[in-house]
Write a structure and sequence with these properties.
Elements (H helix, E strand, L loop, with lengths): L2 H17 L2 E6 L5 H11 L3 E6 L1 H10 L13 E6 L3 H14 L4 E7 L2 E4 H8 L4 H23 L3 H18 L8 H46 L1
Antiparallel strand pairs: 1-3, 1-4, 2-3, 4-5
Helix pairs in contact: 1-3, 4-5
Length: 227
């Protein structure tokens, strides 16, 4: 390979490392071209599966700031550069490896952390992002449904609850809070006396003008007799 071609290949692999959130290294020895195409299709558009040269990949990894990767670059190597859901891609690779034992998962990297082959298999057993989001959405819908049912409960239920609370409060109110019968009788008995006292001045006010009229009428009668 010419030097310019090598430089271009290194630059391309370096960019793949930088643009990906995860990468899985595999050994593809013995797989046919048709099987490799099948694997690429199964991984989807967010994952690029490329056959690479180990020497160039070591340089590219170093340029991209990826460390601890050199020991995995042995034998025929193909790398899945994952730009989407790492769990979904790991599932795809693990499933294909089970159906095609010639594909060997060697390890990988995710978010700057080196992964072993066992780590990738464990990652493949996790729920994918879409499944987790659907579960979260389902839980949220269930919570909203419960809240809606609570708000839509018949008003008669609320009325019965309020009546029960009022009855409980009434039963717990001390009997001493009610006025004693004697006190009630005193209030009733004293009320007419107060009214009589209030009316007395009115009677005197009515009688006073009558006496004044008699006193004025007496001289008039005497004058009439003398005449």
């Amino acid at each position: 390979m010419a030097r310019a071609d090598k430089a271009a290949a290194v630059a391309e692999i370096t960019e793949e490392f930088r643009a990906s959130n995860a990468a899985v290294l595999t050994e593809y020895r013995g797989l046919t071209v048709g099987q490799l195409k099948q694997l690429r299709r199964s991984l989807g558009e967010d994952t690029t599966y490329a056959v690479v040269k180990n020497t160039l990949t070591k340089i590219a990894a170093k340029d991209a700031g990826v460390v601890g990767f050199d020991d995995l670059l042995v034998g025929p190597t193909a790398i899945a550069f994952i730009k989407g859901d790492a769990v979904a891609a790991a599932k795809g690779i693990d499933t294909f490896a089970k159906e095609n034992p010639l594909l060997v998962i060697k390890g990988g990297i995710m978010d700057g952390k080196i992964l072993t082959a066992d780590d990738i298999k464990k990652l493949a057993k996790l729920e994918s992002r879409e499944v987790l989001l659907s579960r979260i959405a389902g839980a949220a819908n269930a919570t909203l449904a419960k809240a809606a049912a609570l708000f839509q409960a018949p008003l008669s239920q609320a009325a019965r609850t309020i009546a029960a609370l009022e009855a409980k409060v009434a039963s717990e109110t001390p009997a001493a809070a009610a006025p004693a019968p004697a006190a009630v009788e005193e209030v009733v008995t004293e009320a007419p006396a107060e009214e009589a006292v209030a009316e007395a001045p009115q009677e005197e006010a009515v009688e006073a003008p009558a006496e004044a009229v008699e006193a004025e009428a007496a001289p008039a009668a005497e004058e009439s007799t003398e005449g």
